[in-house]
Amino acid sequence: MRATVTVRGTFSASHQVPGHSTCGKLHGHSWTVEATVEAPLSPKSGMVVDHGEFAEAIDRVCRELDKRDLNGMLPGVVPVPEGIAGYVREQLILSFPSVISVMVRCDDYAALLEWPLR
């Protein structure tokens, strides 16, 4: 039997998207990150993943980004929900290879990246 587990974290950070009509100036948002793993249930533990370890991994990424300027913090990443979702996946994938999706919300806007890409 396969199952999914989703964990959520939040952080506050600023960003600037050059040339964008509303995000072109440095400003801040509240961000929400949700990551989902999918795998068979472990016959030993009955779980898909150690919930505490997975939640701590999301918390660690959120603490790293909290109260930061995302443009300076993440060179090479466009600091929009899609870019942040890709960054979060990169941070999780080595420890949690069964990550199938990362959703990042920035106030009212959300981006969901799923793997494998369809």
Could you explain the architecture of this structure?
With 118 residues, this protein is α+β, with helices and mostly antiparallel strands. The chain has a single domain (2-114), classed as Tetrahydropterin Synthase, Chain A (2-Layer Sandwich), CATH 3.30.479. Helices cover 26% and strands 37% of the residues. Strands 3-1-2-4-5 form a five-stranded mixed β-sheet. A hairpin with a 2-residue loop joins strand 4 and strand 5 (109-114). The longest helix has 15 residues, at 51-65. The protein is elongated and about 50 Å long. The mean pLDDT is 93.
Topology:
Layout: E1 2-15, E2 27-40, H1 51-65, E3 68-69, H2 70-73, H3 81-92, E4 99-106, E5 109-114
Parallel strand pairs: 1-3
Antiparallel strand pairs: 1-2, 2-4, 4-5
The main pleated sheet reads as: 5 strands, mixed
CATH topology (level 3) name: Tetrahydropterin Synthase, Chain A
By CATH reckoning, the class would read: Alpha Beta
First-last Cα distance: 23 Å
- In helices, the fraction of residues equals 25-40%
User: How do the strands line up in the largest sheet?
Assistant: 3-1-2-4-5
